[in-house]
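Much of our argument rests on the idea that a fold can be written as discrete symbols. The record that follows shows the chain in one-letter code together with its fold in token form.
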Amino acid sequence: MNLILFVKHCGLALWCLLLLAALSPHATETAAGADSISLTPRPHMDAATLRIYNRIRTADGLLLGLGELFAPPAPRQRWEPLYANSMQRWRQLNGDTLPACYEFEMGEANRPKPIREWDEAKRYADLGGIVWLQLSLNNFTVPLGGRRERMVVGGMNDRSNGLDPVLPGGSAHEKFTACIRQLAREIREFGRPCVLRPFHEMNGRWFWWGAQPDKYKTLWRFVFDLFKHEGVRNVIWCWAPSANTPRGPDHYPGDDMVDIIGTSQYFDDAALPKDVVVGLLELAKLGPDKPLWLAELGPLARVDFWRNAHADFGKIPRLRGFNLWLARGWHAWGSQPDRGSLIDETSPRELTEAFAAFLKDKRTLDLGRWAGNVPRAAVNTPFSQGQRADGLFDFAMMWSRGQAVGKGPVRFSHSPMRVEDIERIVPYGLMVGGHVCPIDHGYFFPKQLQPGQPHFDVLAPADGFIVMIGHRTQLTGSTERAREYDDYALTIEHSGTFYTQYDLLTRLAPAVLEQLDAAVRERFARKQMGPPVHTRIAVKAGQVIGKVGGRSLDFGVVNTGTRLRGFLTPSLYGHYAWRLHIADPFDFFDEPLKTKLLALNVRKVAPFGGRIDYDLDGRLIGNWFREGSGGYPGDRRDPRGYWMGHLAFAPHHLDPTKIVVSIGDFGGRTAQYWVKGNAPDPAKVSEADGVVKYELIWGQLGSNGQRQLRHDADQVQGVVLAQVLPNRRIKFECFPGQAGTQVSGFTAAARIYER
């Protein structure tokens, strides 16, 4: 749930106006007509943050904000509320009237791990937007998993044990402290002013931190002091109870630790309810020098509300903004459960026109009006840095931050590993486990490590710059436990259109590690997961950049000067769109190195580097994604994995004459099977064929090329039905453990897949 922020009111004398003018070039513009506000010391803010805060306090209008939950294009479609998804959807509906505030979730919020979009937050802040951060942490005392009474066990709504364990002296205090300290350091590293809204709606009984007033105030003081101890001075603190629940003021931490007073407001009225206004005014008394904010605003989508919104909002002095929580089916909106607060293509014209008029009103401070010093052309650029208008990406901007040198491919004078250290190479296109779609990297398998032998060197294949480093101790989107070793992923820029990607390094080379910030090195040493680190570290061909041992090294080549045509709908791949530009690495190795590596490659037919793109319009072959599952990036709130909505009909990565059916959700697990009789050919199956049936059997060729002779090789392991539909859609259903004679047609469990 989102909250409503309250911005507090202060009186502003002439000498304060002069001070504001010195603090901010916008202060004199925005103060005109604003409520009289006095400046109060904010010793926990640096100068840049204080400037933003004072601009908020004196804003002449209402700042337009957007919460991270934003409704998907279709009812009941599963949706990952990430920044790129939300902003893309907002632009589809509202054009270039962009929100001046955007709230990112920093906690797990019932996920196995938090998804912290720091790069996106930086790009948004640099455009002039105000970054909001919500903190919804899972319960520290209960393992995550399963459901109980509509609640995720161990999630943020699991009230087991309450606040006692995380407070000083509690059983989970050290774990909680480490979590908050890490967040504090990441916010400090973020380096831009931001509004933090932690532990919201604390007066309700639906979060583990809720309805415990005295303990809650102790919690807030502890977190506030820990941020201070870590030197974090770029935070504006927003305290935001639920407006629909009493006893909010009982949880107020104190004036010195709160900068904005907010609240969550959800209602089913055609106008701003009187009790909402009264409740806000009551909360405003807690801090008469602070702005008010509707941190979560979810009104029912009504024409009258949006026509009269500014007049209603004007009844609340010091109200400075709101963050819209646009969603379908919110339980509070019983009269229209499928609509909620959403305004989209299906809304009545009268409603969309009323909302559009509200957005165009000069009193609505969108990003363009708020960031008056940002050129309009810059404000209107696509919001995922590097994303073009056609949905594809400019990776020179996305990865190299616009600093890329040169264009075109380069030659590789070195292998990613020394030839003498390689046992075998597995090319692109493998489908195994969570790699449901043909995978976009090859595998360099090292030889067996001897006891006491150091890990093998990983080398740069050509001159370039390391531009991105990822660090992982747990598989993203899965519930696998943290490993005992670290995974590192590297992206090397060789030109503005040519990159190499590495993954599963066990160590970084000291020459690389020492060029990273101390805070990043510390995070790596603590095995603390976080966002990829953007950097620019020059490397030479053959330079040791890391180590690998005990597993394969992932290696791939991205050439944005070319595009694979076997991906019909690029937008479904989101930020994984580099898959459209994967290139065969063997095309770039110099001789005699190329011949030596091909001898180690287990694929013996062209293309030797494998293939991953098989989509044919109007045919069954290729990649498919369950409708509403979020495309290739998937729904990362599903603890089973982002791949659960994936499906592929594609040739085997080593023997392209064999059909493989690769399924993300085969009775709750991933599965890859061959087809009994190896027919019908999915490259020929079309809408005219109606429903086709495949009986699934075990594959007889392993991922490394070894023959797998099983006694039950011909025993059917299950059945799938597929039917090609118009508009790049199929109907699909799987029947684990059943034989072909037991399956006569689709059931109610059939699902639609798209591409």
